[in-house]
Input
Amino acid sequence: MLSVLAVVAAVAIAGASLVGAVPGASVVGAGDTPTYGDLSGQDLAGDIVGMAPTPSGNGYWLVASDGGVFAFGDAGFHGSTGDITLNKPIVGMAATPTGNGYWLVASDGGVFTFGDARFHGSAAADRKDPVVGMAVDPETGGYWIITSEGQMIGQGPVSSDPEPSPACRIDPVIAGAFSPAGAWLLTRPLVVPQPPPSATTSGIDGNSIAEQIRYAQACQTLDPPAVGSLLRPLSNSRVTSVYGTRLHPVWGVVQLHAGTDFARTGGSAGAPVVAADSGTVLAVDTRVAYGNMVVIDHGDQVATVYAHLSETSVEPGQEIRRGDLVGLVGSSGFATGPHVHFEVRLDGEPVDPLPYVGSAHAVEAPRRPVPVG
Ligand SMILES: [Zn+2]
Output
């Protein structure tokens, strides 16, 4: 029977400021597992984001997003990043096989070593898919860095190299663990942000759409469509706003207009919006700035987005062909009148759609108040 259950709360808090303190975490033992203490009732500078057990099972560490490490039971404190200014928050930790050290990993893939943990490498800091955690190989002492797309980047000696197993699904990976046969990946549904209406809302919507597309297309390889190969999503229409930075019609600030707006001269409300190419419907949802929208996955890391619809006529997962109806023109979200906002995205990032739908229709001078957004 372990006699010492005294909590050793070795606290290291970056910046030593508790302004905006967050509540500490509780540890709940499942089954017959005893607990050795936790941080309930304490105010911390960063959220608790990870946990690792000691090899004996008689203790554990908790780690906060600012790199503060808290040791309980027979876990020893070997240091923290509390005195380092982090570029990105800590997102996970793993203990060495001896239990005499641990690694911390940040969302940009930076790895920090403590005690007998050896440094085997970090993940590239310019990854689009953030790092969400790490897992240690108990046989070899190497580790894997796990990304939100489900890739496991082996560093140092590892007993298996799980095929970079991108999740290829809309749900991001939030954590993972070693299994003798490969790995377990923990996913949760992507949360569609609902920011209050402001000048930054379109950007927030756009970033979330990029994330959604990247997870779903993680197993594909980029092959952009040929120039002029896509169908214009609204027939008999003219371009009312082009892709690029512009003065936003609703907010009056200069920002990227991530797509091309199409409208009919005589009015577009209720006109059919069609798929620019064949593919699979990736998302049908309602966002603050984009309004009712449809995202179609065309494969080859190519996707198209149709926004401000008055109604949608497809379901996620549905296979559709080029020219099929996806919804009706409306002015939902931030729009000054009925039009379709059309985006082409390559690996999630918006590009100018016009070259892909052909340049036959140049931008016309507006003859009446132009619906844009
Ligand atoms: Zn637009």
Q: What stands out?
A: Residues 241, 257, 259, 261, 341, 372-373 surround zinc ion (CB under 6 Å). Residues 1-17, 360-369 have pLDDT under 50 and may be disordered. DSSP finds one helix and 25 strands in the chain. The CA atoms of residues 341 and 357 lie 14 Å apart.
